[in-house]
Amino acid sequence: MTALQDQLDEITSNTRRLVQPERLAIGERALEELFHTGIEERILPVGAQAPEFELNDSSGRMVRGSDLLALGPLVLDFFRGRWCSYCVTELETWRDLYPQLREMGASLVAISPETQRQSDFAVQQHRLPFAVLHDPEARFAEQFGLVYTVPEYHQKYLRSIMVNLPFINGESSWRLPLPATYVVGQSGRILFAEAHADFRVRPEPHEAIATLHAR
Description:
Helix content: 40-55%
Order of helices and strands: HHEEHEHEHEHEHHEEEH
Mean pLDDT: 95
Number of strands: 9
Oligomer: single chain
Number of helices: 9
């Protein structure tokens, strides 16, 4: 299987070839400003107790973290939305690895601020075998230190490419989570934690899975 980061780097390369430099510069400015807030250093770390959650999946069913942890370890994959090609690529990578996770007795849920309807589109379009949960206003992600507000100049740019977050997320805050991967042990302790301000960089799933092997 091709490494996830290699796939993401290809998306970046294609984007740089196709998009005008002055438009690319808007996103680069937003990334740099976000990085300099120090948000990466404030995420909930390995060893911390993971917050509990009760969130609806794409069918409207309530999913409780405590129920999943009663069965085994849990992987939490926070993503921005199905409008993000990097996120979709990551979700499809986890889709392909999901049988391996289940063999290890672990569960996986993907979490974004998108509405239940958008989550359902993601599940159907990308044939996702795991639950995709709606995190209203990214409030659960906020407990992991992952949330930021898209600056106004970047909001304008996203609208220009038909990414209307108030419609997609069903509320007007323009809050997003950093893409992040967490592995939570049955005790509720965090075994693996990684997030990047640069959405083009993601943890390799095999590194998170290795944490399960080591437990």
